[in-house]
Amino acid sequence: MLSGTRGRLASELRRTCTQPSAVARRCLHASGSRPSADQNKRTEKTPRTFDPALLEFLVCPLSKKPLRYEASTNELINEELGIAYPIIDGIPNMIPQAARMTHQSSDL
Question: Rounded distance, CA 31 to CA 89, Å?
């Protein structure tokens, strides 16, 4: 008897997992979670650039000090700590582990 119940439960789970409900299909369609081929082509052609206006809001996550944008290296620089945060596809990577040191500290 247990194996029959388990089999029915498994087949019911398979049926619900394979076919999304009508509501789920409408939500997926309305949210645009599946970009069309035209949208993909458009984003590939125009590289994202960093908007310097964001410097008004962004600060170093370690020192909480303002950052400077260096266009030649596409990085946000913290002069005080000597750290450079990379900008990838127009998005600053503000994770301290992703930053590189710009100069050696003389405090060692």
Answer: 23
Strand, helix or coil for residue 16: helix
Distance CA 41, CA 38 (A): 5
Please report which helix (H) or strand (E) contains residue 69, including its range.
strand 68-70
What is the Cα–Cα distance from 33 to 40, expressed in whole angstroms?
12
**Residue 11 phi, psi dihedral angles, 5° rounding:** -70, -35
Model confidence, pTM? 0.55
Instruction: Give burial (CB, 10 Å; 0-12/13-18/19+) of 85.
Output: buried
Q: Residue 84's closest CA among 72, 68, 108?
A: 68
Q: Compute mean pLDDT per 10 residues along the chain, 108 residues long, and list them.
A: 63 56 56 53 67 93 95 94 95 95 68
Residue 78 structure tokens: 């913290």
Are the C-beta atoms of residues 78 and 58 closer than 8 Å to each other? no
